[in-house]
Amino acid sequence: MKDFWIYLAILAGSTYLIRAIPFAAFQKKITNRFIRSFLYYIPYTVLAAMTIPAAVYATGHILSAIAGLLVGGIFAFKGKGLTLVAVISCLAAFLVELCIFLL
What is the pLDDT of residues 13-64, one digit of tens each? Predict the structure, then answer.
């Protein structure tokens, strides 16, 4: 139980520092277009870096996972809602997994 509190303190400290350092380092509003664009896309990049590897290894076969990821990407690119994208992705992965099982 002692280890948990140590880990929690380290996590809280590192999370706080990541959020507090930019406030301390930048006193004025950032006006550089490149830096503003870079900072705008960081959350999407981090989300993709954490989600895509997990999605590829989420099923029993990599082919079904890639099929679900591709179908989900296509539907998301077309502007469909999150629920529809998730359902269609799961359905695509399930159908490919079923085909692999039957073969």
Answer: 888 888 788 778 878 888 889 988 988 898 888 888 988 898 888 888 999 9
**Rounded to an integer, what distance in angstroms lies between the CA atom of residue 39 and that of residue 93?**
33
> How far is the C-alpha of 37 from the C-alpha of 8, rounded, in Å?
32
Short-list 56, 96, 60, CA closest to 73: 56
SS3 content of the chain, % helix, strand, coil (to 5): 85, 0, 15
Buried b (16+ CB within 10 A) or exposed e, 68-91: bbebbeebbeeeeeeeebeebbee
